[in-house]
Amino acid sequence: MAGPDPDTTCPLPAHPRVCFLRNVIDRANISVGDYTYYDDPVEPERFAEKCVLYHYDFLGDRLVIGRFCAIAAGATFIMNGANHAMGGFSTYPFQIFGAGWESGFDPESYRASLRGDTIVGNDVWIGMAATVMPGVTIGDGAIVATRAVVTGDVPPYSVVGGNPARILRKRFPDEVIATLLEIAWWNWDTDRITRNLGAIMGADLAALKAAR
After folding, report:
1. Can you give the residue ranges of every domain in the chain?
2. Close Cβ partners of 196 (under 8 Å, ≥ 6 residues apart)
3. Backbone φ, ψ for residue 186 (5° rounding)
4. Is residue 84 annotated as part of the catalytic site, yes or no?
5. Which pLDDT does position 83 carry in this prediction?
């Protein structure tokens, strides 16, 4: 046997608070890789509704989350639909209420504030109640601390925390990070990962190199 079935919704029957997200999301604008899970004591299968906010199809922005990520309860992804046009004297969205208030509104004034897709790499741990703002990229192997507010890109294998989040430390030396990104074990098939779990969990870089 080579690990849990990635197509199951609840990989831990005794703990239904954990679900593999790929199997509970049916939105075209959200993509989640195998084995990435969300842990929430209340309806974890409603991740898209509870945790991905202001995400409107007509804006075209996407949330892309890689494989083997761990997302704790209450983590929130704020998408581009939360932005307001800021070029005038008011940020109030008069135009959405119509009844004459939409007259003269220039959609480009709104599109100028869009920040693109939100990307979460592979093997990322996002702590409880952390907030990820629109257009952010979180690199492979990164850790986002509890209640952090991520307003900018997070380098691979960095630990970030605070509001706004800042780099607290790197998990490994630069040369080790470069090698891990080159190896990219998360892209291996499940059998290969299973055979090398000792090296992955035990930080045995020599063994991982040999397994490439």
Report:
1. 18-171, 172-212
2. 185, 188, 207, 208, 211
3. -65, -15
4. yes
5. 84
pLDDT tens across 100-127, in order? 887 777 767 667 778 899 999 999 999 9
Structure tokens at 196: 């090398």
From the candidates 84, 169, 192, 195, give the one annotated as an active-site residue.
84
Convert the pLDDT of each residue in 146-190 to its tens digit.
Answer: 999 999 999 999 999 999 999 999 999 999 999 999 999 999 999
CATH ID of 18-171, from 1.20.1300.10, 3.90.550.10, 2.160.10.10, 3.40.50.2000: 2.160.10.10
Distances 54 to 31, 49, 57 between C-alpha atoms, Å? 16, 10, 10
Q: Indicate the DSSP class of residue 202.
A: T
